[in-house]
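In this supplementary section we document a worked example of the pipeline. Step one takes a protein sequence of length 143 as its only input; no multiple sequence alignment statistics are reported here. Step two produces a three-dimensional model, which step three serialises into structure tokens for compact storage. The input and output of this example are shown verbatim.
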Amino acid sequence: MTSSNKHIQYQILDKIISFIEEGLLESKSRRPGYNKMNKFYEQFLEDSRIQLAYKIFNNFRIDNGVPKGIRLTYLGNELLKRQFTAYDYSHSVEPTPKMYLVLDSQMKWPYYFTKKKMVFYDQEDSAWFKLNGSDISAFIDVI
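The serialised model returned by step three reads:
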């Protein structure tokens, strides 16, 4: 495994690309028998790995050659939840810059965070969130 493949961002991008190439993404077409592997998915195969990273991760950046940021975009969340177990929670907390900064620096696995929804892709993160009363402020204090 090369050093660039050790980073979770690149591992996720490789998985997404393989899902698209192998046609493993679930068809969401309303027309029976119509294969959804159309231009929507094919457009991602034309992008470079870095371009795709910016579409999948909301806070993606490269710092001294190391990729940073695993907060998912809406698109990233939609693609990942089709292939991985997602732990989805609704909330009504207005996100603050401090919340984004703490999550960015402390989270080890991808997550999706908006003013209405928190989605984890790690069972342990989900459990800690639930144990803290599904309160984002309390969760941030724990992590």
